[in-house]
Structure formats: structure tokens, C-alpha cells
């Protein structure tokens, strides 16, 4: 563990953050070319599947426990601790609450679960290491930096609200025993097909604005590159599935625009 806290940590976190941006851009290019991520409604059933609840808990867990470790044992100032707390609030929901609300009987392909575990370890480490050791404290910041950070925190919680609201709408679309797909309605679904993805993008954009750090910006960029195209895929899927029944004014990801 000493390696994690050596003088190489700054360089390591920086390299891993840049790599995350590059990876996100590559993923975005692949997804926009027409390739769909093989989970959810696009799952390939011919592969080994992990139960959905198990997959979510195991894959999201590193993004909770790794930053928690940094928060408890290595945080050097209050603002870094606050940013880690924001991160932990999101992943507490993703690890311990959301998975147990799932009603789907569909599993997650093993390779999707494995890649998600790897990403959550990667992201959990760079966010935890940076916020615990390198994030400026209140005494080192300027007034504009403070107000940008405050704005970022407000945006983060707005995005979290949008995300959880959209998740709950999707989780409650079907009555117990029902099968098939329905058109989601309510909340931001009145404006976009990917309301849950929009909420998560807003959330991590707010976090990046609050932190103003390379790892936070890298995560926000990766999030946009990874789930932005998925919202576009979902929108097209809804249009093909429901045709004239689907609201024509609804966009894919950005209200009134895209």
C-alpha cells in the first residue's frame, strides 16, 4: 500500500486521469459508429450472465470502498473530505440501494461486469487519491473559485435528483408480473429519452466544477462519452419500438436540442 502514497502518486493519478479521457473518447467513437454496449436491452443472451443485483453491488462497490478508505485514513483537508463525501453519497445509492430495487430477471454479461469493476477501481482510486492528498483547502482558494465550487455542488445535487427520479420512474414502469417495455413518462422523461443518463451527466459535471481537478474533469468527460451515445441509442430504439405512439417532441439527451 505504500506505493499508493509515495511521491509517484501525483504523477500516477495524472497519467490515469489523462488515460481516462483518452479511453472515453475512444469509447464514444466506437459507440457513435453504431456499436451498442451489450447490457440492458442490448444484452447478448448467449454468454455467461451475472445476476443483475449481484453485478451492480460488486461492480459499484470499489467506487464506494476505495474512496471511503482515503476519506478515513488519508484526507488532509475539509474540502477534499467534502468532495469525497459527495462521491460516496452517489455510490452508496448505486451500491446499496439501487441494486435491490431492480425487478429485472435479466443478468449482466460477465465481461461487462468485469470491465465495470476495473473502471470503478480505477476511478475510485484517482478520485480518492486526489481529493485526499492534493485538493486545495479553503485557505488556498480565491473568491471566484469558491463560488464556482458552490455552484458545482448545487448542480451535483440537482443532477442526483434528476438521476434518482428517472431511475425510480423506470423501475416502476411495469406492475408486478408485467413484461415488455413501456414509454417512460414524468420528470425529465417529458423532454428526453435518456433522462437517467442526463441526470448522471449533470451530476458529474457539477462534481467536476466543484472539484476543479483533472480526475474530476476526466470522470465527467468519460461519463458523457460513455452514456451520451447510449441515450441516443435508446432514443432511436424507442422510436422504432413505439413509432407513432412515441412523443415527437422528446429529444435523446439534451432538452430541445439533441
UniProtKB/TrEMBL annotation:
A GO term from the CC aspect: endoplasmic reticulum membrane
Gene3D superfamilies hit by this protein: 1.20.120.1630
UniProt-listed InterPro entries: 3-oxo-5-alpha-steroid_4-DH, 3-oxo-5_a-steroid_4-DH_C, SRD5A/TECR
Entry keywords, A to Z: Differentiation, Endoplasmic reticulum, Lipid metabolism, Membrane, Microsome, NADP, Oxidoreductase, Sexual differentiation, Transmembrane, Transmembrane helix
Catalyses which reaction(s): 5alpha-pregnane-3,20-dione + NADP(+) = progesterone + NADPH + H(+); androst-4-ene-3,17-dione + NADPH + H(+) = 5alpha-androstan-3,17-dione + NADP(+); a 3-oxo-5alpha-steroid + NADP(+) = a 3-oxo-Delta(4)-steroid + NADPH + H(+); 17beta-hydroxy-5alpha-androstan-3-one + NADP(+) = testosterone + NADPH + H(+)
Ranges that cross the membrane: 12-32, 109-126, 138-157
Role: Converts testosterone into 5-alpha-dihydrotestosterone and progesterone or corticosterone into their corresponding 5-alpha-3-oxosteroids. It plays a central role in sexual differentiation and androgen physiology.
The family this protein is said to belong to: Belongs to the steroid 5-alpha reductase family.
UniProt-recorded name of the protein: 3-oxo-5alpha-steroid 4-dehydrogenase (NADP(+))
Organism: Caenorhabditis auriculariae
Lineage: Eukaryota, Metazoa, Ecdysozoa, Nematoda, Chromadorea
Amino acid at each position: 500500500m505504500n506505493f499508493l502514497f509515495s511521491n509517484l502518486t501525483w504523477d500516477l493519478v495524472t497519467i490515469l486521469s489523462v488515460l481516462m479521457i483518452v479511453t472515453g473518447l475512444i469509447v464514444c467513437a466506437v459507440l457513435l459508429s453504431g456499436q451498442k454496449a451489450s447490457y440492458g436491452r442490448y444484452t447478448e443472451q448467449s454468454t455467461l450472465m451475472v445476476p443483475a443485483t449481484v453485478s451492480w453491488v460488486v461492480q459499484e462497490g470499489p467506487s464506494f470502498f476505495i474512496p471511503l478508505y482515503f476519506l478515513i485514513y488519508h484526507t488532509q483537508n475539509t474540502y477534499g473530505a467534502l468532495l469525497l463525501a459527495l462521491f460516496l453519497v452517489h455510490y452508496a445509492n448505486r451500491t446499496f440501494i439501487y441494486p435491490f430495487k431492480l425487478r429485472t430477471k435479466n443478468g449482466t454479461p460477465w465481461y461487462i461486469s468485469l470491465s465495470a469493476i476495473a473502471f470503478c477501481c480505477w476511478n475510485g482510486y484517482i478520485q480518492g487519491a486526489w481529493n485526499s492528498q492534493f485538493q486545495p483547502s479553503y485557505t488556498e482558494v480565491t473568491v471566484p473559485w469558491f463560488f464556482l465550487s458552490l455552484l458545482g455542488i448545487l448542480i451535483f445535487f440537482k443532477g442526483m435528483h434528476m438521476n434518482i427520479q428517472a431511475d425510480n420512474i423506470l423501475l416502476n414502469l411495469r406492475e408486478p408480473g408485467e413484461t415488455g417495455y413501456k414509454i417512460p413518462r414524468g420528470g425529465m422523461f417529458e423532454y428526453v429519452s435518456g433522462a437517467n443518463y442526463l441526470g448522471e451527466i449533470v451530476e458529474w459535471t457539477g462534481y467536476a466544477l466543484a472539484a476543479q481537478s483533472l480526475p474530476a474533469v476526466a470522470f465527467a468527460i468519460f461519463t458523457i462519452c460513455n452514456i451520451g451515445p447510449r441515450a441516443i441509442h435508446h432514443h432511436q430504439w424507442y422510436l422504432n419500438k413505439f413509432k407513432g405512439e412515441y412523443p415527437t417532441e422528446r429529444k435523446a439527451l439534451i432538452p430541445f436540442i439533441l
